[in-house]
Predict the structure.
Amino acid sequence: MDYIIDGLAKAFKIIFSLDKEFLLIVFTSLKCALVSTGLAALVGVPFGIVIGHKKFIGRQFIITVLNTLMSLPTVVVGLMVYSFLSRQGPLGSFGLLYTLTAMVIGQFILSFPILCGLTVTAVRSLDRKVELTTLSLGANPIQGLIMLLKEARFGIFAAVIAGFGRVFAEIGVSMMLGGNIRGYTRNITTTIALETSKGEFSLGIALGMVLLMIAFAINIIFAQLQRNSKNCLCIG
Amino acid sequence: MYRIKDLQKDYERFSLNIIDCSLKEGYIYAVTGPNGCGKSTFLNMLSLIEQPSQGNIYFQKQRVDYSDSAKLLQQRRRIGYLMQNPHLFDMSVYTNVSYGLALRKIPKRIIQEKVDRILSLLSLSHLAGRNPRTLSTGEAQRTALARTLVLDVEVFLLDEPTASVDKNNISIVENLILSLNKEKKITVIFTTHSNNQAYRMSKNIISIIGGRIKDIAYENVFSGELEEEADGLKTVVVGGMCLKLSHGQKGHVVIAIDPGDIILSNDPFSSSALNKVRGIITKLEEVNGSLRIFIDAGVEFCALVTRRSYYDMGLNIGKKVWATFKANSIKVL
């Protein structure tokens, strides 16, 4: 029990002293997660809007695939991207393995289905009601789509937050594609795994607390946005 | 205003069929009929939002061409349509009401004047800054109505405009619609479940039964299962009343009883009429010189009496009366 209390005391010391290595690890996690989520949002949100709004053959199949990919195991993504980026792989010549770029690629693959799938859900839940109302008031298709996006904004924000939450807390991709290189690709989750295996709990606990706080904040925002997106008003 | 020729709109389990129908400019039309008869589909067609499966609609003497989206948009912008379950946008009441005007590129100053006026007419001014999700159902319904009535259009299509409006505000809404028709000569086509409201607001009743327009505007429309008795008589049970009919086929039927065929009396009397029911008077209304007496006998129905009969019988709300009518008076639609 003493070593846990000792670990906690040291963890608080690390946090409040703003230890350089500790800050670099948190910064690496944030940087990777923000870049990968940003890129996934740039691609996934427009895709989600199109899939949610337009009716075409194979639409339901795509939605089913997206829903399945939402729970993609991180180690499977790590393994898949690893096979492409390793020296023998088709993209081995780019020398991306064990870089932040490799981690961003892996995290992009993880967050894309979440962002796209939840955007589809947000748009579909409002689509017909909003479309008919805007048409009844004299909107053209583009004006109708703009209003649809305004109405679905909370759902879309929630999708982005959920995507960020997923990649920020993952370890499989970061470990397999980043290699946990100190001062370069080492992030919160890989450090916790390493420090625990070494029997050094203090840094792990400090980072764990940061991870929990950020995850908690993300979930509060996510829950609030989901509540807002469900509160759309339809009379009758 | 509208001419409809051989129109058909097919859904999985329902189709609307209108062979020939003309709706004149400047008139008020009330569309009545039971649930699921096609009233909303009829308005959807007139709003030009949905395309018919077959047939043509002529709007202001021009055939509606659904392939010409630019022209269709221009035609749609001459129509103000309040749908049955309108969606209120997640923005203030003021922004909701001004949305249709903003789409038509009306200057902001004029938008403000128009929105302020309609909000005031519908007693919504104090709610202008509120989000619709904080409003009561009645206030939300009036907001949706304001959003439609604020538009400068040639026709208003209103799908049950007072469905969720509280009793105190129904007459405000009705008077506003009547004044817009009278002062601006705007054609109004509205649906209602209340025959009472239909007759109060319009002399032109369109009765839709089973997806078809009927020549006569039927009242006291009920539906039920028709059973055949051993003596050849047919019966339909409607809300506790067992009605006897002279004709009709076994199965689900829609029936109508002409209010003029119903005889009211304070006591039961001997006659050849097979239908005698006792009920309580719930409402009295004067329409075009006659009195419409609403009676609750398990379901509410309406009988027509003269002013003299009303005084002679001492009819009043809460009084119990007998309603007598012949089996032949019940029409199977």
The CA atoms of residues 32 and 101 of chain A lie 8 Å apart. Chain A touches chain B through 23 residues (CB under 8 Å). The beta strands of chain A are 233-234.
